[in-house]
Specification:
Blueprint: E1 9-11, E2 16-20, E3 23-27, E4 30-32, H1 42-55, H2 69-101
Antiparallel strand pairs: 1-4, 2-3
């Protein structure tokens, strides 16, 4: 178990404006408590990480120690959950558009 400092998902209140190849973009920083939080279930950890994955275009996986095989397995599983979550969201949104706009 890890004694995490962040609880849930923290979102920085104001986006950072950047110029990328001549295009203005807004960067929003998220911080999550990560896996194996003291007093939290694996299901909770997986859902937090999956939500952060869906919300992010770039993801940095930071650990306070050497990466273990179990960390890679958990990361892989959370990405699978995020893909499923994203697929359901897109399907629901497309269904909504189909039935409400056409």
């Amino acid at each position: 178990m890890r004694d995490t400092k962040t609880k849930g998902i923290w979102i920085w209140g104001k986006p950072v404006e950047m110029d990328v190849d001549g295009t203005k973009v807004s960067v929003l920083y998220l911080d999550t408590e990560g896996f194996e939080s003291v007093g939290k279930s694996n299901v909770y950890d997986d859902r937090i990480f999956a939500l952060a994955t869906v919300l992010s275009s770039v993801l940095i996986y930071n650990l306070p120690e050497t990466v273990r095989e179990a960390d890679i397995s958990r990361l892989s599983f959370a990405v699978e959950i995020a893909e499923e979550f994203y697929g359901r969201f897109v399907f629901s949104f497309c269904s909504y558009l189909q039935f409400n706009l056409f």
